[in-house]
Amino acid sequence: MFWQTLHFTDIILWMLTAASTFYIFFFSMIFLFHRRTKYLPSPDGIQDYHSFLVIFPAYGEDRVITKSVASFLQQTYPENKYHLMVVSDHMKAATNEALRQLPVSVLEPCFDNSSKAKSLQYAIDHVENSGQKYDYVIILDADNIVNDTFLSYLNMSCLRGFRAIQCHRCAKNSEGSIAQLDGLSEEINNSIFRKAHNLIGLSSALIGSGMCFEYEWFKSHVHRLSTAGEDRELEQMLLQEHIFIRYEEHIPVFDEKVSNEENFQRQRRRWMSAQINSLQNMLPQLPRAIMTGNINYVDKTLQQMLIPRSMLLVFTLLMSVGMLLISVYWSVKWWLLFLIVCFSLTGAIPKALRKHHILSKVTMLPKLTWKMLKNVRHIDRQNKDFLHTDHY
C-alpha cells in the first residue's frame, strides 16, 4: 500500500510539473528556430507623429530619477509631440527642485499608502483636469534609460495600429552575479512570453515598465488598478477586450537589475504574489473565454498556473536525484523532464548572452530558490504597496 501511494504521488507530481515544462519547451523552441529579421525599418522620412505622455512613477527614487529624465529629453522626436510627467512620491525637495529645472511636469501627491497604480491614476487625473490631449501614454520606471530614437521607433509601431505595446526591457547593469542572473532571467522571459508568443500570433506579456497604451483606453481603465501587479491587471483588461499586445524587440528600455540576494528574494516574492492574485482574478472568466474562443485570455490564465522557471529547474533536479535513490526506473521520467527544462531555458537565452561567465551564474539558483520557497508563507495576498528596485 505504501509503495502504491508513493508511486501515485510521484506520477501526479510529474504530470503537474510536466505541464509547466512542456509549455516552456514549446515557446522556447518557437523562439530558437524562428527566422530572424535582418533589417529594421528606419523612422527617417516619417511625417506623421503621434503625441505621447510619458509617466515616471517615482517612489523615493532620488538617486536615479533626474538622470533618467534628463536622458529621455535627448529624444530626436519633435519636442512638441511628447511631454514628461514625474509623479514624485516621497522624494526629497532638492530632487523635485532639480526636476523642475527641466521641461517636465512634477506632481507631488500625498498618499497614505503609496502604490504605482495610485501614481498612474493621479497623473491621468491631472492631465484630464488640465485639458491636455495625447494619443498614447508611456509608463517607465524611475531607473529606466532609453535611446534617443525611442519615441521615433515607438511611433512607427503606433502608426501600424497597435494599441498596446511592450518594449524590450533589458539590463543596464551587470555588476555582480545577482544582477547578471536577474538580467538573464528577464531575457528568457522576453523570449518565451513575449517574442515567441507574438511569432505565432498571441499577445505578449507586459512587464511593468517600457509599456505604451492608447491614451483613451488607458484613461478609461487606469482607475480599475488596485494592486502592485498593475501589469497583470492591465493584461487581463486588454485580453478581455481582445486587444492585442505587441512586443517590440528592437525598442530597448534599459532597466536596473537587483544586485543583492535580499532584494532578489523580495522582488520574486512580490511577483509570486502578483501571479497568485492574477490567477484568482482570471479564473472566473476562463469558461467564458473558452466558449468565445478568446485564446489569448486562455493562454494568459495558463501562464498564471505555471511553476516559476527557477523553481522548475531546481525541483526537477531534486526529484530526479530523490527518485534515483528510490527506483532507477521511476527516476527516468524525472531526468527527462530536467533535461527538457535545461534545454528549454538555454534555448530561450539570446545567442549573444550564451556565454560561460553568464551561464555559470545558474549555479546560484538552488540557494536562491530555497530562500524563495521559505518565503512563500510570507506572500502578501493584498500586494498593494509600491515595489521598486533599491539603488546603491
Main attributes of the structure:
392 residues; alpha/beta; eight-stranded mixed beta sheet; 15 helices; 8 strands
> Residue ranges: pLDDT <50 for 5 or more in a row?
none
- Rounded radius of gyration (Å): 22 Å
Q: Judging from the principal axes of the Cα atoms, what is the shape?
A: globular
Compute the number of helices.
15
- State the separation between the terminal residues, measured CA to CA: 57 Å
Percentage beta strand: 5-15%
Read across the widest sheet, the strand sequence of neighbours is 3-2-1-4-7-6-8-5
Q: pLDDT average, as an integer?
A: 86
Tally of strands: 8
Structural class, judged by helices and strands? alpha/beta
Structure, described:
Helix 3 (93-100) links the parallel strand 2 and strand 3. Strands 3-2-1-4-7-6-8-5 form an eight-stranded mixed β-sheet, sandwiched between helices. Helix 1 crosses helix 6 (177-199) and helix 9 crosses helix 11 (295-305). It is built from 15 helices and eight strands. The protein starts with a helix and ends in an 18-residue tail after the last helix. With 392 residues, the protein is of the alpha/beta class. The protein has helices at residues 2-33, 65-72, 93-100, 116-130, 150-159, 177-199, 215-221, 230-240, 261-282, 286-291, 295-305, 309-326, 328-347, 356-359, 365-374, and strands spanning 52-59, 82-89, 104-107, 136-139, 145-146, 164-171, 211-214, 245-255.
What layout of secondary structure does this protein have?
Elements: H1 2-33, E1 52-59, H2 65-72, E2 82-89, H3 93-100, E3 104-107, H4 116-130, E4 136-139, E5 145-146, H5 150-159, E6 164-171, H6 177-199, E7 211-214, H7 215-221, H8 230-240, E8 245-255, H9 261-282, H10 286-291, H11 295-305, H12 309-326, H13 328-347, H14 356-359, H15 365-374
Parallel strand pairs: 1-2, 1-4, 2-3, 6-8
Antiparallel strand pairs: 4-7, 5-8, 6-7
Helix pairs in contact: 1-6, 1-13, 9-11, 12-13
